[in-house]
Amino acid sequence: MVARCNRIVPLFALACACAVATVYFAHPLLVTMGQDLGIAPAVLGAVVTTTQIGYGLGLFLLVPLGDLVNRRRLVTAQFALLAAALLTVGTASTLTVLLTGMAAVGLLAVVTQSLVAFAASLAEPARRGRVLGTVTSGVVSGILVARTVSGVVSDLAGWRAVYLAAAGVCALLAVTLHLALPDTAPNPLRYGQLLRSTVRMFACEPVLRARSALAVLVFAAFSVLWSSVTLPLSAMSLSHTAIGAFGLAGLAGALAASPAGRLHDRGLGQWTTGTALGLLVLSWVPLALTQRSLWALAVGAVLLDLAVQAVHVTNQSMIYAVRQDAGSRVIGGYMVFHSIGSGTGAIAATAAYSVGGWPGVCALGAAISLLALVVWAVHARVHANRVSSTDTVSPAPAPPV
User: Fold this and answer.
1) Residues 133-161 pLDDT 10s
2) Is 394 in a helix, a strand, or coil?
3) What is the reported pLDDT for 302?
4) Residue 176 has what pLDDT?
5) What is the pTM of this model?
6) For FRET with 70, which of 44, 52, 122, 350 sits at 20 to 30 Å CA-CA?
7) Does residue 365 lie within any of the structural domains?
8) TM segments (predicted)?
């Protein structure tokens, strides 16, 4: 089983990239969609919002199913249904049909996290961090490449071609994964018990709570940058192509994922987290100079993305180790906090920019990043004290014979 996992890790990464990309295809296509379907500009934001709502529901309702049913059948079914949802979007003729299809795309694109949990369950413990790093590299690459691919395909063949082509890719992946992945044993739990146990785990396990808190903060910092950076760049009269090119700096995050996983496998998870969070705080220094130098933006973006993805991979490796018997629930629950952080950061960044401009955004990002470093330091000290006290407890004397 382990050898088979090693051979199919690239397939996991590719499938994750394709699935998560479907959530982001719409971002550069909104205006074109609106013109084609006669949608008012004020309503276009609902397309993205509906997709994100669907994704959030899927994280809680669908991803935990990996601990209940055969994982191979689950991901195969999700990809097949995702293909149908993409087909619905690509052939939509009204706003209602479009929003229904986009909600379904978001709901089913959480197959990305089902695959992450599946890959972790197949990996041997000594290589789990490396496997998760490779798969996460696929996720990051899918997010970054999605906007570029959708823009190019739309220019060549129209926005509908983006979704129709994606539907074909997902259908092909459904067949491929069905043939390549191993079967897993179902769990006797009922669905209601499964969801309740997810909530209980995060309420009772200190590591899950601490790492979820870090997820909220680091992805809030990530979202503070990428949801607002277009504002100062647009003020510099840069083209949409030039602005979009800065997003490629996020590829640094994909490069950081695998090394972070290997460091975790060597027992350096806490060190990796602390170092990455230090880089996250430091990244806001060059980012604050964006309006003076675009090179400063590039350097700051690379540092920020390296830090965020390193923390993300280490988080996933650590929380999975806590409850290996509930990997899908753990990963799905953790990603809910990821989404909360991303959404909160975007809203806060907009408010900060309206009040204090770009310096206000950078001050907010630096404050969130510093808070994340403090949260990690407190948890690391508490954990170290707990381990130390456990090690120094004298064994109970043997009972008299």
Assistant:
1) 788 778 877 877 777 787 778 778 888 99
2) coil
3) 84
4) 93
5) 0.74
6) 52
7) yes
8) 7-27, 39-62, 74-92, 98-119, 131-149, 161-181, 210-229, 235-256, 268-287, 293-311, 331-352, 358-378
Is 207 a member of any domain? yes
CA 312 to CA 219: how far, in whole Å?
9
Q: Please report, as a single letter, which amino acid is at residue 377.
A: A
CB of 333 closer than 8 Å to CB of 216:
no
Q: What is the pLDDT of residue 296?
A: 86
166, 199: one domain: no
- With respect to residue 262, please indicate whether it lies within any of the assigned structural domains: yes
Which domain-ending residue is among 188, 209, 241?
Answer: 188
Write out the residue range of the structural domain in which residue 122 sits: 1-188
Average pLDDT over residues 317-338: 76
H-helix or E-strand spanning residue 335: helix 327-392
DSSP, residue by residue, 73-106? HHHHHHHHHHHHHHHHHHT--SHHHHHHHHHHHH
Number of residues that this document lists for the chain:
401
Indicate if 201 and 92 belong to the same structural domain. Answer: no
Least confident of 38-52, 81-95, 207-221, 243-257: 243-257
